[in-house]
Structure formats: C-alpha cells, structure tokens
Pyridoxal phosphate homeostasis protein (Pseudophaeobacter arcticus), 220 residues
Amino acid sequence: MSLQEIKTRITAAEAAADRPAGSVTLIAVSKVQPNTRVAAVLDEGQRCFGENRVQEALGKWPDFSQTYSGLDLHLIGPLQSNKARQAMELFNAIHTLDRPKLAKSIARLAQELGHCPDLFIQVNTGAEPQKAGILPEEADGFVAECRGLDLPVKGLMCIPPVDEVAADHFTQLAEIAARNGLAGLSMGMSGDFEQAIAHGATHVRVGSAIFGARAYDTQA
Ligand SMILES: *Cc1c(COP(=O)(O)O)cnc(C)c1O
C-alpha cells in the first residue's frame, strides 16, 4: 500500500457515501515507524500525522518541524495528566480525552499556555475493561462537563473491539456525537477506514496500510 493509494480509496469512499471530496482528514499514524519511512511520506506531501506516545513524538517531530512546515500532529494514544503540558505544546489535536481529571488539567494548562489543541473525547464503545475511554452511558455527562470547562471539544473517538463488528461501534459513536452536537468523528484504521467513512468518520487513523507493518507493536 502507499499514501497515494490510501488517498484514492478515501476519495472513493467519500463519493460512495455521498460525502464531499476532502471531508475526511487522513491521519498518517507514524508511531514506531523508522524516520526514513516517515520522511518519505512527508516528502510525498502528507502533513497530518498521529502518534501514540508523547515521549516518542517528542523524539522526532521537533526535528522534522525544522525541515517540514505546516505539520498537523495528533495524539491518538492514552495521555497521563503529568504529560498533558508537553502534549499540548506539541500536538494540534488530542483524541484521547477520557476522564474528568485530565479535562481539568487540560483546562488549567490552556489558561496558562493561552491555547488548547482540538480535543476528541475517547469513548470505550465496547466497554472493554483494558481499554481507555469514557463509557457510552457517561459520555453525554462528560461532554457537558468538558464544555463547562470551556474546552474545545470537536468530536468523539473510538477503537472498536477487535473481535466485534466495527460498523456497530461506528454507528454508536455517530449517534452519541449527533445527540451532543459534535461534528468530529475519529474512527477507522487500516482495516476498516472505508466502513468508518460510510458511517460518517471525519478523521481516519491509518498506520500500517501507509507505512507497512510496525517492527513491534505499542498499540494501546
Ligand atoms: C496504531 C493505531 C492506529 C493505526 O493502526 P493501523 O491498523 O496500523 O492503521 C489507529 N488508531 C490508534 C488509536 C492506534 O493506536
């Protein structure tokens, strides 16, 4: 697979869903990939990237930003409150806001820093004990709480359970977003991004289909 092929497939999926061309943002998930592969994708013009870990991202993106302008960096992995400041300084968007304590830390830091990344609330649609995210039945209350803190919540994010029909989870996430007046839907990965687009994804997070298999897997 290549970046160009994925972009072609996204365009086709947008058309198949009667959605405007360009309505889906491709986040190229570069976690764990060697810098040479990331540089190749940057050279092809991609500017929007996703990372799982703050520390790993700090090790590569400040350097890349010396060479490449207009980077749009998204944190898609779990965020500890004690890394929130670093994350907010580096990333343009955080997709893993998932608990009140983190919301309060981000709100306080936003005051201090004078800016805040776009935020997506992660919903644990499969209610999996090992997975991060607010439970579906707590999502409405948490959205309201975040809005009360003046946080720029743009949408919701989910990672469907591996052994379940992803479309059911995409539908569920879209329903929660719609009833809360949220436009953003971060859903869909290498194996199911076209389905996610059919269900309204605005941001797809595609790693291995662009870069090739990861040498080891730190998937959260
Ligand atoms: C790693 C990861 C992806 C990308 O997964 P691929 O299957 O390689 O496309 C997407 N979202 C999250 C949250 C991830 O951790």
Notes: The domain at 3-18+26-210 is CATH 3.20.20.10 (TIM Barrel).
